Amino acid sequence: MSVSPDIQTLCQNKNHVAPTIDSEREEFRKYLESSGLLDVLTRIMEDLYEKDSRPTDPLSFLSNALGAVNFNGREITALQDELQTLREIIKNLEEENSFLREKLQKISSD
């Protein structure tokens, strides 16, 4: 039985294609990890696993759990806004501190 040239070529080039696919998968996995999605999904799946009575609709459970994550996202946004405001306050206080130190140094040198 002879193997068609296309299949033969594909088998020979298999080693050249696999590293590309593996690197793309690894890059995507790193993307999911850095975004925090894997942690969230893992936590939700652990919660589902640990439930004494499993929900009849696991997809609905997942959807509701992800909705709770969105609420946390709003809290995170509010905290980021507060952080930005506090950074501006710190910057203003540092400038005032620097000004007052210079003024004190001038008075001390006179």
UniProtKB/TrEMBL annotation:
Keywords: Coiled coil, Nucleus. InterPro entries: AMY1. Residues 76-110 form a coiled coil. One of its GO terms (cellular component) is nucleus. One of its GO terms (molecular function) is transcription coactivator activity. It comes from the Eukaryota. This is c-Myc-binding protein.
